[in-house]
Amino acid sequence: MDDEVVQRVFHEGGREYFQQQPSTTSSSSSILQSLPLHVSFDRGYYLLVKSIQELREKKNGLVTVGIGGPSGSGKTSLAEKVASVIGCTVISMENYRDGVDEGNDLDSIDFDALVRNLEDLTKGKDTLIPMFDFQQKRRIGTKAIKSASSGVVIVDGTYALHARLRSLLDIRVAVVGGVHFSLLSKVQYDIGDSCSLDYLIDSIFPLFRKHIEPDLHHAQIRINNSFVSSFREAIYKLKCRSEFHMLYLAFSFIEMYLRPPSASEEARINDWIKVRQSGIRYYLSLGDQRIVDKNFIIRPKAEFEVGRMTLGGLLAWGYSVVVSYKRASTSIINGNLSVSLETIDTLGETFMVLRGTDRKTVGAESLKMGINGQWITKSYLELILERKGVPRLNTPPPLSNTSVTSTQEKVIAAPRPIRTTPNSVTRLEDLSQPWTRSPTKSKMEPVLATWHFIASEPPLADNAVIDFSHEATTGSSTYRDTMKLAPMPDSYDLDRGLLLSVQAIQALLENKGLPVIVGIGGPSGSGKTSLAHKMANIVGCEVVSLESYFKSELVKDFKYDDFSSLDLSLLSKNIGDIRNCRRTKVPIFDLETGSRSGFKELEVSEDCGVIIFEGVYALHPEIRKSLDLWIAVVGGVHSHLISRVQRDKSRVGCFMSQNEIMMTVFPMFQQHIEPHLVHAHLKIRNDFDPVLSPESSLFVLKSNKHVAYQDILKILDPSKFCSSVQNFIDIYLRLPGIPTNGQLTESDCIRVRICEGRFALLIREPIREGNFIIQPKVDFDISISTVAGLLNLGYQAVAYIEASAFIYQDGKILIEVDHLQDAPSPYLQIKGVNKEAVAAAGSTLKLDGSYTTKSYLQIVLERLPAVERSSSGIHSQQAARLQELVEFIQSQGSSSSSDSSQSREASPIEGVIEDMQTRIKRLERWHTINTVLWTFLMSALVGYSLYHRKRQ
């Protein structure tokens, strides 16, 4: 971030410690120069981390960050995720309460103490921050914060951007959305258009517009958090009655359910609002969002805190408390697993509940504990309603059918948003209403949609080349064949789509019985595979990738996105066997060798009555007619690549529409995939950003220190150990004309990795913090026609790196030893999702002090003479081989996009590919021999040691 942008970061009250005139000659771009009015949660997280890093390099002393916003918007979640990467101190403003009334009340916050603490830290002094206990409703002590360990301090709270604090903050972040927007949309849906949005906000969030919203307009980074609740990281519960009674009560909650004013007396608990009171805190969830599968209760993890006045506002609008009970709980926690005893006063019973984030672990623990009691899958609410019935509907207070009068409008008029300078935020005045209070939809669908079945015509005889209906020999007019799911009328985000997908499977099992066959289709990188495996984790079923049905001869021609590359006859047989509950063998395809390596048996049973097929062509007419549920997924890296191309093109003064880019980069999608997606029962738009999101972070430590093979084995679990060998080529594509400082940098390039015959994409460089590289968990596969499309759009191949990798892993830690071509020594990478586990592995291997965060492109460039490090490429010795790769990609890409299956002449690059495959085989043989010899040597040593002990 250059000085000019740093100065702008501090506008309107920020700490200004740069006194020199801003530089106007620098051409380097900054992450905040084109910051839009508001960004997604994932994008905001990335911007905040990069802003902290760049600001930390520009100044001496403490970097202070304020994250403000309404209750339930996601402030605390953002602060925790940034702290997990940066390793900073988070100060919660809730610990500065000096009263027990409404948490959003400005008078209940001890600003004087918070200002003193921040001033001490900015001056390099240690300080004591207060600690507040919400169960005891009082301060219980203090906590020491050392200035030396607090290079970055984040203040998290509703009033974190208040005028008393803004002069002490370097970076100001506003977060809106979450349950705040969702609750507004829910209430609007329940009560209709009987009042204005402003009046509704003042009723449910009475302090927001007066005391909170005006401060949010001072933020430099503005986040609209659409995330509400998610089953991506669900909690799995097993519950049964218990004969044990608690000796003491560790926690006590009051849980209540609010029925909408327009509800009938039927027990539609999905439309009710749940409020949980814990001490002086209130947590809210919209509807009974849970999934029941066999004995498991599966719930989303997220909880959202609201103020006490919000509950009063809902009651004033006619919501009524229909059920209320006290839940006393005591728990024993072991890692990600907990065992709780919970007593419900209304039922007079105690229940034992096992909770965990992994379904198999929870199930295994129940067997280990020897619990033989009957599992209960009903919620406490359902048990209470069964015993006492649904409370009768009282007459709600009357609601005005007329709009609010003009005098009322004047009384509750919103304060005028503070206008920022034009170079900070563009087109702010074009918005019809402030960004801080706009619900995501003016008309919100019910919290949980309901699946319906419709009658269809009996299946006709199929005269197509591939007959998928031959399995229906038991009668074409059966209920199963004539009843179909009615498509959902709208599209949904990934979180709601995951919930609806599982509910559709359950509806099919209940109404049509076994088996249920699901198809998930969409473009490459849209999130199909991720969604399929998350559904399988919840339902407990099998996932089959259509890539398993590739024909070897077409895969060798890189025709992955060609429908003719699938072995449709085998796919037809497998689906027919599954339909008739017969055991079948599905193929296993080895992408490394480009051929089928074997088969896997699949059988439909009560334990596994669902099979999910996922792939680009899963919704093709020849396939989907034999499936029960059709799911389309769009977005993900597919849309991010289009945005990246648009950004690059605009930087060189060329503007292209999304449709023009789509036709060039994804020709097969537009012609042969997209037309099938419109017929899906469920359409999911994947707005989740796997490149930026902290949810997909992979922590990496890289070192060029030599480590012996036996030392690597010591830190991996031998029972789960596996290894492999890969060769890969990284090609860097850059658009000519993008401003640079004369050097080739990774941030200006799109990296395409060729590995095992696949093409994977990296469109944004990772975050580097300390010794760690934080990058996405997975690469995103694309077709060769997409790479050819990028070349046709003007991207030029400016560098390539060839390497071989030895990979060792045990499911928690992955260790990769990369041998770069022409590099004097290999590089070792330790990868994992747990930062502490990766750091511990590095310390065990004694790598401390040898880490580097440089990319392989940087490493190769630094080894070259200075005259050969220009932005136009690496050096002339690679030019010939790089040109061969480009010509090969363009020839194959053009033939794929035109559906040409004609034979082609041998290209020089084919020799390179064949040479790579030969080297892979040679490395594999070497690795196998090495493993056998090492195992023999260790066995001999162990045997000799045991023999020596026995003699002694």
Write the layout of secondary structure elements.
Blueprint: H1 3-9, H2 41-58, E1 63-68, H3 75-86, E2 89-92, H4 111-122, E3 127-133, E4 138-145, E5 152-156, H5 163-166, E6 171-177, H6 179-191, H7 197-204, H8 208-216, E7 221-225, E8 235-241, E9 251-259, E10 273-278, E11 281-286, E12 291-293, E13 296-299, E14 304-306, H9 308-316, E15 320-334, E16 337-344, E17 349-356, H10 359-369, H11 380-388, H12 406-411, E18 453-455, H13 479-482, E19 483-485, E20 491-493, H14 494-512, E21 516-521, H15 528-539, E22 542-545, H16 552-555, H17 568-579, E23 584-590, E24 595-602, E25 610-614, H18 621-624, E26 629-635, H19 637-651, H20 658-665, H21 667-677, E27 682-686, E28 697-703, H22 709-714, E29 722-734, E30 750-755, E31 758-762, E32 767-769, E33 772-776, E34 780-782, H23 784-792, E35 796-809, E36 814-820, E37 827-832, H24 835-844, H25 856-862, H26 879-897, H27 908-951
Parallel strand pairs: 1-5, 1-6, 2-5, 6-7, 20-27, 21-25, 21-26, 22-25, 26-27
Antiparallel strand pairs: 3-4, 8-13, 8-17, 9-10, 9-15, 10-11, 11-14, 12-13, 15-16, 16-17, 18-19, 23-24, 28-33, 28-37, 29-30, 29-35, 30-31, 31-34, 32-33, 35-36, 36-37
Helix pairs in contact: 2-3, 14-15, 19-20, 23-26
Account of the 3D structure:
By secondary structure, the chain is of the alpha+beta class. It has 27 helices and 37 strands. The strands form seven sheets. A ten-stranded antiparallel beta sheet has the order 12-13-8-17-16-15-9-10-11-14. A ten-stranded antiparallel beta sheet has the order 32-33-28-37-36-35-29-30-31-34. Strand 35 and strand 36 form a beta hairpin. Helix 23 packs across helix 26. The protein is globular and about 75 Å long. The termini are far apart. Residues 1-35, 395-433, 440-447, 459-477 and 899-913 have low confidence and may be disordered. Residues 61-211, 514-660 form the AAA+ ATPase domain. Keywords: Membrane, Transmembrane, Transmembrane helix.
